């Protein structure tokens, strides 16, 4: 049982390493839209909670 878990964890680590080599910037894509005042990421089309007063 310990061998199976160990091999599984080693396999997952190897897949993670190859995934990072193949897609190093996944998640940052086109660059998240940020509020020019406070720098928070903007979600949706509405204004930032800071109201541009930061």
TrEMBL record:
Superkingdom as given in the UniProt entry: Bacteria
Transmembrane residue ranges: 6-23
Entry keyword set: Membrane, Transmembrane, Transmembrane helix
Protein name per UniProt: Short-chain dehydrogenase
Source organism of the structure: Albidovulum salinarum
């Amino acid at each position: 049982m310990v061998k199976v878990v160990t091999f599984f964890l080693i396999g997952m680590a190897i897949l993670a390493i190859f995934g990072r080599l193949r897609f190093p910037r996944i998640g940052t894509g086109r660059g998240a839209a940020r509020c020019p005042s406070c720098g928070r990421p903007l979600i949706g089309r509405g204004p930032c909670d800071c109201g541009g007063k930061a």
